[in-house]
């Protein structure tokens, strides 16, 4: 083993040791006690958390993907730059600000939280759908048209498979951010695992903090890995291989 | 057969992309649309499968006015090859080649059989490439697949938009030759866009030379080279047009104009075959050390001698 | 609406003070983040295996929800008496900024045209000279883009850090919610958004300036 590989190995081991040490420390100090002693309450908060995430992100998917497809059709292409620029600007606005603004319109409650998270998840999906569809080789579309594919066939057989990688990346970003931001929904009366985190902050109670924060973190990391995995299935093999080859060449 | 009747295309704002083009491409004819960039050659080609609209006039393919046909259906009956191959990276080579048969609902067995046939035709073993993806192929191979894809449903008419334009010269010339062999077998009606006069001369039965959307000359390659109708054509074909045209004539064409006696004994110069190009003969003769060449006659005779003067006389005749 | 303008009229000094606080937090954490991230990113270009480990770790850190990270850091930092306040906020912002900064630096240096690098070697530049005169100037636009992403990200997370007592514009939202003062919440949300948009815009301009002429 050379020095460089050794350094890489040491750093890798250090990361794992730190994670292990963290869990050993939390467990030995009984910091998961809230979770262990009130499993029903935990499941209630987790259920509410997932409910907010699922509703808001399905709404975002159902809006952003069709909108992205429409905006890349010749008829609506002229509006694309407005939408893309607005989406870019919108993405700059911090999540807490969006939640606070939603509360201004809807008042306190789960509706405000769902609406804010819907808007917040919309933008990355929309942006990546448009970027993905726009990156499709015009020659491939021209060839497809020239060979007599219908617009629907071109969309489903050529454009969407070729845009899949970018689209899933957008969905992944959106959902991971959504899970984290849902932890803030407590502030505007949305509930979810954020309840324990904020309770912990207010009461300075580590058992609440850890029992709330660790599950939210695991949820976000799991979602992230899940979509990484999904990419392997949904992105056509030819494109994955081509991307790999291109990356290796670069 | 493709017939253009008084076809024009005017862009909003009044710019004429195509100006009153009438043109008939007969069954099995290979016609090259040639011209500088912006002359409208690609537009004219794309009008045939309705990728471009026509402002005035009409186009008929196989005797049917294309406007009376369903756009999608008629496109499936026309082969289409483009420069940047347009292969679908998400599909395997077999899926790419079988796109149109798939759209037409061919059975799996029929498709597999057709794929094997086409791959043999383009000289790529079907079993080696069936499951490959486009990016795994070289540029030349991708373009061959592009041709196979266009031939997949055996369309009578093929549209080819600079299909070999992006390839390096050596590969391009090889693929051109392969394609000519394929065309000899299949006798498709082909409309082919090129900006390269050498490619046009090599491939075409007839050349359409375009400028600013208007036909300048529609003729056999040798005619275009030797009898340009106007200054634009003579400039486009270049100062070496006569030399280029000698590529298109063979020793037997010269023989037909001369009555060469058979020679006794061994000839004092190289003996050419009747199918050798006259350009080769001329190039050989230009060397100061060589005065005469001979040609193979019928029944194994050797005829001659042929000198530079004979070729000069031949050129006078073809350019008259 | 009038109500809101009225609120702004009476509290602009307070809002301004929170904005300054917010920017102080950013200034400190981003300076440290750049001082760690850029050299690390450059070093990683010489060690492929370490690069993949570090980038993976940084990307996992970025997936951790910010409020959860604060939640985890409070008990840890409490052991040294710094559970809430400025320090945990700075640490969190540094951690979150690492991925965009390291990744962009790493990509920027790696992507320098091999021909340029070859030419620099050919005319006898040392490794350090090459880094300073060729690789960093050529990679600057991408490195700055990473800093920009990190800044916008940090402004948003800095707002959340107000809940653990770091100060800044998040305080307006925090206090506004607990006092039921809509105008205060709105003022905080709008101010944070403007700050983020302005930072994004300003850094984009700087990014253009930093690009060597001819790139």
| The number of domains of chain B | 2
What is the number of strand segments of chain B? 13
So how many helices of chain A? 11
Q: Architecture of the largest domain in chain A, CATH level 2?
A: Orthogonal Bundle
Task: Determine the strand fraction of chain B and express it as a percent band.
Answer: 15-25%
- Kindly, what is the distance between the CA atoms of the first and last residues of chain A, rounded to a whole number of angstroms? 27 Å
List the helices and strands of chain A in order.
HHHHHHHHHHH
Order of helices and strands of chain B: EEEHEEHEHHHHHEHEHEEHHHHEHEEH
| Fourth-tier CATH superfamily name of the largest domain in chain A | MetI-like
Instruction: Give a quick account of the main beta sheet of chain B: strands, pairing sense, barrel closure.
Output: 6 strands, mixed
For this structure, the quaternary state is: heterotrimer
Radius of gyration of chain B in whole Å, from Cα?
Answer: 23 Å
Looking at CATH, the homologous superfamily of the largest domain in chain B is P-loop containing nucleotide triphosphate hydrolases
Q: Can you tell me the CATH topology of the largest domain in chain B?
A: Rossmann fold
Look at the structure and give the mean pLDDT of chain A.
90
Average pLDDT of chain B: 91
Compose a concise summary of this entry.
The complex is a heterotrimer of chains A (250), B (320) and C (215). Chain A has helices at 3-28, 33-37, 39-71, 80-92, 95-106, 110-134, 138-146, 151-182, 194-203, 206-234, 237-249.
Question: What topology does this entry show?
Answer:
The complex is a heterotrimer of chains A (250), B (320) and C (215).
Chain A: H1 3-28, H2 33-37, H3 39-71, H4 80-92, H5 95-106, H6 110-134, H7 138-146, H8 151-182, H9 194-203, H10 206-234, H11 237-249
Chain B: E1 2-10, E2 16-25, E3 30-34, H1 41-48, E4 56-61, E5 64-65, H2 71-76, E6 78-82, H3 93-97, H4 99-103, H5 108-121, H6 126-129, H7 139-151, E7 157-161, H8 169-186, E8 189-194, H9 197-203, E9 206-211, E10 214-219, H10 221-226, H11 231-237, H12 241-246, H13 251-257, E11 271-272, H14 278-285, E12 293-296, E13 302-306, H15 308-319
Parallel strand pairs in B: 3-8, 3-9, 6-7, 7-8, 11-12
Antiparallel strand pairs in B: 1-2, 1-4, 4-5, 9-10, 12-13
Chain C: H1 2-44, H2 48-63, H3 66-78, H4 86-110, H5 114-122, H6 127-161, H7 170-179, H8 182-210
């Amino acid at each position: 083993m050379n020095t460089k590989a050794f350094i890489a190995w040491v750093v890798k081991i250090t990361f794992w040791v730190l994670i292990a040490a963290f869990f050993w420390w939390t467990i030995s100090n009984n910091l998961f006690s809230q979770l262990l002693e009130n499993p029903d309450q935990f499941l209630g908060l987790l259920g509410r958390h997932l409910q907010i995430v699922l509703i808001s992100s399905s709404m975002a998917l159902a809006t952003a993907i069709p909108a992205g497809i429409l905006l890349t059709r010749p008829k609506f292409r002229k509006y694309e730059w407005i939408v893309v620029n607005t989406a870019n600007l919108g993405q700059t606005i911090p999540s807490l600000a969006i939640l606070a603004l939603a509360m201004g319109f809807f008042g306190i409650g789960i509706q405000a939280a769902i609406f804010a998270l819907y808007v917040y998840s919309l933008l990355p999906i929309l942006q990546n759908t448009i970027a993905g569809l726009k990156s499709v080789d015009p020659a491939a579309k021209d060839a497809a048209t020239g060979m007599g594919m219908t617009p629907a066939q071109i969309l489903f057989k050529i454009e969407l498979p070729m845009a899949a990688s970018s689209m899933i990346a957008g969905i992944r970003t959106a959902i991971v951010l959504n899970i984290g931001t849902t932890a803030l929904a407590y502030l505007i009366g949305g509930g979810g695992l954020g309840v324990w985190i904020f309770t912990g902050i207010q009461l300075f109670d580590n058992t609440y903090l850890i029992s709330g924060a660790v599950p939210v973190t695991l949820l976000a990391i799991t979602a992230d890995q899940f979509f990484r995995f999904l990419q392997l299935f949904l992105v056509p093999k030819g494109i994955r291989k081509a991307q790999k080859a291109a990356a290796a060449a670069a | 057969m493709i017939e253009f009747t008084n076809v024009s295309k005017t862009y909003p704002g009044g710019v004429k992309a195509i100006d009153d083009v009438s043109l008939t491409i007969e069954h099995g004819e290979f016609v090259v649309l040639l011209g500088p960039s912006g002359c409208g050659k690609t537009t004219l080609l794309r009008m045939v499968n309705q990728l471009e609209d026509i402002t005035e006039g009409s186009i008929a393919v196989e005797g049917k006015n294309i406007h009376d046909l369903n756009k999608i259906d008629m496109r499936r009956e026309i082969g289409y090859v483009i420069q940047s191959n347009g292969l679908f990276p998400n599909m395997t080579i077999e899926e790419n080649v079988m796109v149109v048969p798939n759209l037409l609902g061919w059975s799996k067995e029929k498709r597999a059989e057709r794929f094997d046939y086409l791959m043999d035709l383009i000289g790529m073993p079907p079993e080696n490439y069936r499951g490959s993806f486009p990016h795994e192929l070289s540029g030349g191979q991708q373009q061959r697949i592009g041709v196979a894809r266009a031939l997949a449903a055996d369309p009578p008419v093929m549209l080819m938009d600079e299909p070999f334009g992006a390839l390096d010269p050596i590969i391009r010339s090889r693929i051109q030759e392969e394609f000519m062999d394929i065309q000899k077998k299949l006798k498709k009606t082909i409309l082919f866009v090129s900006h390269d006069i050498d490619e046009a001369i090599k491939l075409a039965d007839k050349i359409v030379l375009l400028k600013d959307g208007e036909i300048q000359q529609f003729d056999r390659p040798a005619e275009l080279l030797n009898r340009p109708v106007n200054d634009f054509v003579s400039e486009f074909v270049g100062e070496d047009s006569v030399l280029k045209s000698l590529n298109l004539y063979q020793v037997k064409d010269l023989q037909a104009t001369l009555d060469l006696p058979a020679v006794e004994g061994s000839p004092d110069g190289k003996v050419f075959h009747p199918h050798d190009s006259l350009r080769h003969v001329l190039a050989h003769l230009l060397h100061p050390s060589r005065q005469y060449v001979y040609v193979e006659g019928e029944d194994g005779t050797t005829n001659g001698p042929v000198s530079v003067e004979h070729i000069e006389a031949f050129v006078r005749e073809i350019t008259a | 609406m009038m109500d809101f303008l009225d609120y702004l009229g009476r509290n602009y000094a307070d809002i301004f003070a929170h904005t300054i606080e917010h920017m102080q937090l950013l200034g400190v954490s981003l300076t440290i983040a750049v001082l760690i991230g850029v050299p690390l990113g450059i070093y990683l270009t010489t060690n492929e295996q370490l690069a993949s480990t570090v980038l993976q770790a940084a990307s996992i850190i970025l997936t951790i929800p910010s409020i959860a990270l604060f939640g985890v850091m409070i008990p840890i930092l409490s052991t040294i008496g710094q559970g809430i306040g400025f320090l945990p906020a700075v640490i969190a912002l540094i951690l979150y900024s690492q991925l965009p900064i390291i990744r962009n630096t790493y990509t920027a240096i790696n992507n320098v045209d091999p021909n340029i690098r070859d030419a620099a070697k050919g005319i006898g530049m040392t490794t350090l000279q090459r880094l300073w005169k060729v690789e960093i100037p050529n990679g600057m636009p991408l490195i700055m883009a990473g800093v920009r992403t990190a800044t916008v990200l940090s402004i948003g997370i800095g707002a959340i850090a107000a809940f653990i007592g770091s100060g800044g514009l998040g305080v307006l939202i925090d206090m506004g919610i607990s006092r039921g003062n809509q105008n205060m919440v709105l003022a905080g949300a709008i101010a944070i958004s403007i700050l983020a948009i302005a930072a994004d815009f300003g850094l984009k301009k700087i990014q253009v300036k930093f690009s060597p002429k001819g790139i």
